[in-house]
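Hi Q.,

Before the meeting this afternoon, I wanted you to have the pyridoxal-5'-phosphate prediction in hand. No need to reply - just skim if you have a minute. The sequence and ligand are here:
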Amino acid sequence: MNLAHRVDALTPSSTLAITAKAKELKSQGLDIIGLGAGEPDFNTPENIIEAAYRSMREGFTKYTPAAGLPELKKAIITKLEQDQGLTYKPSEIIIGNGAKHVLYTLFQVILNEGDEVIIPTPYWVSYPEQVKLAGGIPVYVEGKEENDYKITPEQLNSAITNKTKAIIINSPSNPTGMIYSEAELAALGEICLEHNVLIVSDEIYEKLVYGENKHVSVAQISPSFKDFTIIINGVSKSHSMTGWRIGYAAGHERIVAAMADLASHSTSNPTTTSQYGAIEAYNGPQTAVEEMRQAFEERLNIIYDKLVEIPGVECKKPQGAFYLYPNFKEAAQIAGFENVDQLVEALLEEALVAVIPGSSFGSPDNIRISYATSLEALEKAVDRIHSFVEKKN
Ligand code: PLP
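Predicted structure with the ligand bound:
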């Protein structure tokens, strides 16, 4: 049997594939250190687990509305009001099975065959695939290293055509950890407004911001920016709830209603128990969120200093998220490899360190190192990479 054409161009998530390979090697008894993870290494805070458990004991184990529980929508509305100063109605919020699923649903309802979506590189691996699955065409705009991997208004202007439907802004960014400032967002946003381009603002790393850096949502810049923006967020990274699968979108009522209709025929609703956990995540104490942020920041500062000592490695210091995105082009050459992909393979097989090659994110000279693991493992891994690069020399 032939499969549908839509899967022809589909590439499986490379980040999940490398993590799986590292796990397999580990199960064979090899001392692999995995730096591929895209999830916090802390358990979900106890109060959230308790609230979810309580909800099941109380009998809240049935279907909910397709767009999510009204109580959870209320908690999200309060969060957006408090954190961003934005006001949304319940009909402008949809909860889905993680931000990934929310994005998938969004592209399904806004894209027609041939519509273009601007994706700045380096990008999160699922954006291009989701756009293609919805019949859209990803248009890549290079966030240059010298501009902290961010795109400029000039670049955006020249990428827009009469087919451009949307742009994805992911700040703080996976994989680069960079953050767009308010002024940068305003400049990009103006162009989007002028050309009627929807801004898909993926703010999943909002709570993981370091030093003097600040997260600003493009929607909070002005009411007209809010009109042109759909915010994507969730509890996965902020509350260490990746396995619970709860994310949301906040935006135009018509888009949200269409997304809810689609969800009603695909998933029915996000898992009821997880929604009760997420209500507690937003309404309960936020101390664990800040504690986790501080732990990430401490690791970042220590590991960054060690990483840049590796010969040939250049690294912009990340401002948020939990990834380092060093340029390893020269280091790969020093170690005798033709390219960074080859180095990454050898690192896994010979140095027993799993990292994700930048080619997965559209910038093949880099590697992505996740510091969502213990400081001890991180230090050991960076030492291994260091001596691997030097020894091969
Ligand atoms: N957006 C970005 C940039 C991410 O890195 C991730 C997860 O890795 C997601 C969205 C999806 O998060 P979730 O589906 O767990 O809410």
